[in-house]
Protein 1
Amino acid sequence: MSLIRVDLRSRVPIFEQIVNSVRDLAIRGLMKPDEQMPSVRALAAELAINPNTIQKAYGELERQKIIYSLAGRGNFIASDLTGLMDTHRQALLHALANDAAQAYRHGIPVAEIEKTVSEAIRSANFGEEKGND
Amino acid sequence: MSLIRVDLRSRVPIFEQIVNSVRDLAIRGLMKPDEQMPSVRALAAELAINPNTIQKAYGELERQKIIYSLAGRGNFIASDLTGLMDTHRQALLHALANDAAQAYRHGIPVAEIEKTVSEAIRSANFGEEKGND
Amino acid sequence: MSLIRVDLRSRVPIFEQIVNSVRDLAIRGLMKPDEQMPSVRALAAELAINPNTIQKAYGELERQKIIYSLAGRGNFIASDLTGLMDTHRQALLHALANDAAQAYRHGIPVAEIEKTVSEAIRSANFGEEKGND
Amino acid sequence: MSLIRVDLRSRVPIFEQIVNSVRDLAIRGLMKPDEQMPSVRALAAELAINPNTIQKAYGELERQKIIYSLAGRGNFIASDLTGLMDTHRQALLHALANDAAQAYRHGIPVAEIEKTVSEAIRSANFGEEKGND
DNA sequence: GTGGTCTAGACCACA
DNA sequence: GTGGTCTAGACCACG
């Protein structure tokens, strides 16, 4: 049973949820490089979703170089995820900068912004027992 | 000419862009309480967009109590935006906390996170010539 | 009636033939920037092909930034094709270099390679009455 | 260890890659007439590929008269490759002429086309230390 | 067994 | 009207 999850009631397209889910699992290291993906039919059966929808998601994942396909064998997590990691790291920092700038522009005091950030980091640290400085 | 802006090529629906745009303008004080909105037809003409789309956006804005409509007179920004401001302020801080925590969890050093935030604030300050402490 | 052509008996996938066809028409200037594409349903009817197949082709064209889509309006040739042109020019020269190297490696005399090239250019010139030096 | 090479990630079928690889090796004289091919099982083991795939490739090679099979003895490069050489030589020159003409038609200056060709020949020469005039 | 393509037909949101 | 998503079911090539 795979770790890929989907919410049929969400208005974000199923195939996109799958793409995001796999990308996330790969980034978080829950799916390792060169690990085999569930087959199109298997995942379709598990999620009770049409195989075409899975296929579409896998196609998009391949285009984004998050997985690769071997003829007749199946799909696999990409061997090298560094590009993906870098992109993701940039996206995170970009989102953070956006949030901060927008909060500031909406008149939230700098002190409150900074306090929010440091508290968020503290609780994150708490949840994982791992510090990075 | 109104301040409302729309990107036709974006995949987010035009009516939603209008809703977001007006909400943002109201929150940032660029549209004042009880100020009159551009008429549906005027805005449609200005943005080169189907009037039905504007109508839909105004309907949604009214539903969210960001604007109110006076029969035969037009649409107006809500008189009391405090609820909206509070909600929005919370949402901003929530997003900020989320992104900060996620960045931290992905191993980005605290120093880099804090630097990103303070730089974002600095550039925002630069762009608007308005300080809030 | 559009200029897009497809060969149902070819083993190259229909959707890919459409992608190639449109790319080619755009490169050759037969479809101009911001020109509207035939609608998915219209092209499907004209080519006697399932609309889903057209949709897939248009999706790929959009990913390659050869066309863009406006919500509710249709698909259009990209406004700026310079990137496409550059890529294509590089691909042409790369293929040419490959051909020449392979011919040489297979023992074909340099003189014959050069003669083949200059004759090919001469006949191309003949066909189009346009010289470029 | 044979000279036959295969890229498992390529979308061109493995059996076809093998056919192309052997054809190329034969044409370039790296596999001599009547030379014995690696056995199906040996090649399968070396390339880490399903023996059925090798079998299919050998079948196709035999059909194209590039190899012949002796019952119980194995497969061998064809004794007479002149026909193959001629065909291939023509194909190479044809592709070269085509690409040169197409480059010219797309407005690439003749000087650049010729430079590309001569440089490709030079690098090919460099790589193989063998001149043919 | 695997992925990939295609058809037929439906439904939805947007303009 | 437009594009976009999804399902159901079929067929094919590859390994």
Protein 2
Amino acid sequence: MSLNKLSKDFFLRDARHVAKELLGKILVRKLGRKILMSKIVETEAYFDENDPGSRARQTGDLRKTMLMSAGTILVYGVHNNWLVNFVTNKEGKAEAVLLRALEPLNFNSNCSGPGLLTKAIQINKNFHKKSIFNQRDLWIRNNEKEDKFEIFSTNRIGLRKDLPKKLRFYIKNNKFVSKK
DNA sequence: CATATGATGGACT
DNA sequence: GTCCATCATATGG
């Protein structure tokens, strides 16, 4: 039992808060004998049906998954890429945080983009609807020797319709953040 | 089944 | 900034 692993309480808050707090945390991916570790450097928050950019407005499986309990992994495909999200807040609240970029710590792959990072650490639909808390080969932990960093926020990327809010968060001056 | 649509990424201006 | 290949999904019949 690692005390370092993020608990359910961490995800039991609103998506905006969780998106910010996830920055600097360590994502661990076990692939056979290899353990790939990376730092989360960029995220986006998505809300319920009042969010014009959110898939929660749809009526299908995406919305259903966002309503599930905090810490549920949500994977969905767009433009030939897998995008990975973590469901946040209380069950029945459609909220999620999208992982947009990682800083590889002990491997060398381009993780600067939501589609690229899933390719790099081999996340696919197999993880969809699973809980992040009981995966043997994927988890998130605190980074106890993390340096202080500044958080920057912008509007979300690639949306047809976005909210007039800044819901994309990233670590300032980190070169692994996607786009400019 | 058919068709539309991107929470993309890479190439290019 | 713009263009567009490409395909997993959503949705309608």
